[in-house]
Design goal:
The structure is a single chain. This protein is of the alpha/beta class and 467 residues long. It folds into two domains: 28-57 and 348-466, Aspartate Aminotransferase, domain 1; 72-346, 3-Layer(aba) Sandwich (Aspartate Aminotransferase, domain 2), CATH 3.40.640. It is 38% helix and 15% strand. It contains 13 helices and 14 strands. The strands form three sheets. The chain has a seven-stranded mixed β-sheet, with helices on both faces. It has a four-stranded mixed β-sheet with strand order 1-2-3-13. A hairpin with a 2-residue loop joins β11 (373-379) and β12. The longest helix is centred in the last third of the chain and has 25 residues, at 442-466.
């Protein structure tokens, strides 16, 4: 077991002025930064760095590597496809992996999602959802529908359009005069409630806020309402109730507003169902977006699923002609098929439910014993651990502590990779995510929990000296 060196609690050193190139993190803010090891190898749920130190991948990066690392069947499928047909642009030729993958994914999603538009990741897939919704509105005589509503807080991608519909006031200066920010309504957060509210009454008010927002904007001006059905980092694995999901579905249906489920992070088995929408069968979306785990880190892959009735009608009118150089890439589609094969072969959705129950029990036990854990929330193999200064008052940690990066550094000292950053400037609290690969064994989950316990002990000791 490594010991925590002093330098591991400091930001990354700046790149020397004479250096050329550098790894991607040269662009990231260096204040309050977590240390980033140089990884050279990965297998199963583990990484090894250049010094030979081993780490457990406890969050699949940003919830990507659902199969773990080094899966030979997926790698062989990728290599075989590359040797047979590495690339064909979708506007000059079709490819069989695209056809097969779209059919498999659509059949998994069920009625209402018969058409699949593929892209290179979650941001592109969400962008395609917005493009499709807008093009359909224009082509069908509803060009006035141009407003998008999202939750505050929320996150929907890293393109200009998807950042603009993400509910995060920390980006206001970036967008000022540059792009149109989406309208937002409050997210039905369950831990920090406004005065006078229970979790149930606050959810009702949040659903009513959507109705009020649509009425204020003018129903025929609103194009779509975008939501993560189970939250990611922006809300710390927030899980809405069935009543809330039914209510927003009813509001959108009543006003002709398209309901978009962003399952980029929470889809593909992460919540105990292959699609998170399956938890709310009477609140299904109009457009479904998935990415991350459908490529499992082996290839960049995203998908936007829409009804055949909409796609075929649009094709007969103006068409949906937005395309990317790598959409429906045959290698990526072959990886997608191999990933689905692994889900079926290993029954990973059921395994994720079983290991998710074990993970939940362990995290809740840690929360009961650790004075700095205020809340544990999530579903399946997607959990957030919210840190507080005081449990009784739910007081937030001081912003200048850089708490989540400090926790990540403590975790590194125990061979654990955790994913987190202070979203929305920490306005809603600070948490880290725990979302191991779905292939993790019971023993590996126990190991992760033990390392998290030691990490929290270290952080609690540090906080006592900083208070």
């Amino acid at each position: 077991m490594k010991t925590l060196a002093a330098r591991e609690l400091h930001p990354n050193e700046p790149v020397p002025a004479a250096a050329i190139g550098g790894t991607q993190d040269v662009f990231y803010a260096r204040r309050n930064a977590a240390r980033l090891p140089m990884m050279v190898r990965a297998e199963g749920i583990h990484f090894w760095d250049e010094a030979g130190e081993r780490y457990i991948d406890a969050s699949c990066g940003p919830m990507v590597s659902s199969l773990g690392h080094g899966n030979r069947r997926v790698i062989d499928a990728m290599a075989a496809q590359a040797l047979r047909l590495d690339y064909v642009f979708s506007r000059v030729g079709r490819n069989q992996p695209n056809q097969a993958y779209a059919e498999r994914l659509a059949r998994l999603a069920g009625p209402g999602f018969e058409r699949v538009s593929l892209s290179s990741g979650g941001s592109e897939a969400m962008e395609r959802a917005l493009q499709f919704a807008r093009q359909f509105a224009v082509a069908t005589g509803e060009a006035s529908r141009r407003r998008v509503i999202s939750l505050d807080p929320s996150y929907h991608g890293a393109t200009i359009a998807t950042l603009a519909i993400s509910g995060n006031n920390a980006g206001a200066a970036f967008f000022d005069g540059f792009a149109t920010i989406a309208d937002t309504v409050p997210a039905p957060m369950t831990y920090r409630l406004p005065a006078g509210h229970t979790a149930e009454s606050w959810e009702r008010d949040c659903a009513d806020a959507l109705e009020r927002k649509i009425q204020a904007l003018g129903p025929r001006s609103v194009l779509a309402f975008a939501i993560e059905p189970v939250g990611g980092l922006s809300t710390g694995a927030l899980v809405p109730s069935a009543a809330y999901m039914r209510a927003i579905r009813e509001v959108c249906t009543r006003h002709g507003v398209l309901l978009i489920f962003d399952e980029v992070l929470c889809g593909a088995g992460r919540t105990g169902r292959f699609f998170a929408m399956e938890h709310w069968p009477d609140a299904r979306p109009d457009i479904l977006v998935v990415a991350k785990a459908i490529g499992a880190g082996y290839a960049p892959l995203g998908a936007t699923l829409v009804p055949a009735a909409m796609a075929d009608r649009l094709a007969a009118l103006t068409g949906f002609d937005f395309s990317y150089s790598y959409n429906a890439n045959p290698i990526a589609c072959a990886v997608g098929l191999a990933v689905l094969d692994e889900f079926a072969r290993e029954d990973l959705v059921a395994q994720g439910r079983a290991r998710g129950g074990q993970l939940e029990a362990g995290l809740r036990s840690l929360a009961a014993s650790c004075p700095m854990v205020g809340d544990v929330r999530g579903r399946g193999m997607l959990w957030a651990v919210e840190l507080v200064r005081d449990k009784a008052s739910r007081a937030m940690l001081p912003p200048d502590w850089g708490a989540v990066d400090r926790v990540r550094n403590h975790a590194l000292a125990h061979g654990l990779l955790l994913y987190s950053r202070a979203t929305s400037g920490g306005r809603y609290g600070q948490w880290f995510m725990v979302a191991p690969p779905l292939v993790a064994s019971a023993a590996e989950i126990d190991d992760i929990l033990a390392r998290i316990a030691r990490t929290l002990e270290d952080f609690t000791r540090w906080a006592a000296t900083a208070a």
